[in-house]
Specification:
The protein is of the alpha/beta class. Helices cover 52% and strands 14% of the residues. α7 packs across α11. It is globular, with a radius of gyration of 21 Å.
Length: 287
């Protein structure tokens, strides 16, 4: 599979990694990128993720066979509205958004009415660093990528998007947007909330300077993702707020149970807490 032109809208970590992977595998004759800031143009050139970058979204999208939305979730509807005049008939539009119901609601009808085809996708890959210079051509190797077709989806486009992510090294699965958002609310979004809360609480400036010195490997590993983009995570939390709120509530319940056992010096309950967690983590890690 090779596209004549591929357009990446939003060339950060994910967009840059897509560009690098596509160019390395020669999956497109031309890879164009749209960025909001002129200052990002030089970074895109330095990274080598694109054939060219522009701050003109219409120029980036013009004649593209595949358009990938890599902007923060809160910008996707607006950027889609802007690109429509240049969208090629029959083109495929997909995204890398961490929630799917909101993206489909905001984008699918707009794209389909313009004579193109939208198929939602979410590569479960990333990192705490942001920007195109953090991009890696191997970012999607063996990563899960969820494809979320709807009743309105164009079947050949679903197959094309699935094949695209497989070619980039990902393992693809299909599921509904609703199921996706419930599951990632627990497994992806909740851990970011936990990491952010832990980093904020432990590293409060009111604590003695020695506090930071005593934050070793466990703290570093647990809070690594707290260094992610605040703008991106704000949009994710708002877009998936119902599912995430339920996940946060369940997590608070679990912590409260542990706190009760701790207050009562209930050794068996504390041991059971850690034993269950170890068993489930070990079984998951062995899959």
């Amino acid at each position: 599979m090779k596209f004549q032109k591929l357009a990446i809208l939003g060339v950060g970590l994910l967009g840059g990694s897509v560009g690098l992977a596509v160019r390395q595998r020669r999956l497109a004759g031309e890879v164009a990128g749209y960025v909001r800031r002129s200052a990002s143009l030089a970074e895109c050139e330095q990274a080598g993720a694109l054939d060219y970058a522009t701050t003109d979204v219409l120029a980036a999208v013009s004649q593209a066979d595949l358009v990938i939305l890599c902007t923060p979730l809160g910008q996707m509807r607006a950027i889609t509205t802007q690109l429509l005049p240049a969208l090629k008939a029959g083109a495929i539009v997909t995204d890398v958004g961490s929630t799917k119901e909101s993206v489909i609601r905001d984008v699918e009808t707009l794209v389909n009415r313009a004579g193109a085809h939208f198929v939602g996708s979410h590569p479960m890959a990333g990192g705490e660093k942001s920007g195109v210079l953090a991009g890696r051509a191997d970012l999607f190797d063996d990563a899960i990528c969820v494809i979320t077709p709807t009743k309105k989806s164009h079947a050949p486009s679903v197959k094309a998007v699935t094949a695209f992510w497989k070619t980039l090294g990902a393992r693809t699965i299909l599921m509904s947007a609703r199921e996706h958002d419930v599951l990632v609310g627990r497994s992806s979004h909740l851990p970011h909330i936990v990491a952010a809360a832990l980093a904020s609480q432990v590293l409060r400036p009111q604590h003695p300077p020695a506090q930071g010195m005593l934050c070793a490997t466990g703290f570093r590993d647990t809070t690594r993702i707290a260094s992610g983009s605040p703008e991106m995570w704000r949009d994710i939390c708002l877009a998936n707020r119902t599912n995430l709120s339920r996940a946060v509530g369940s997590y608070i319940t679990e912590l409260t149970k542990f706190q009760t056992a701790l207050d009562k010096a209930d050794g068996p309950a504390i041991a059971k807490f850690f034993a269950i967690a170890k068993q489930r983590r070990d079984e998951w890690g062995a899959e």
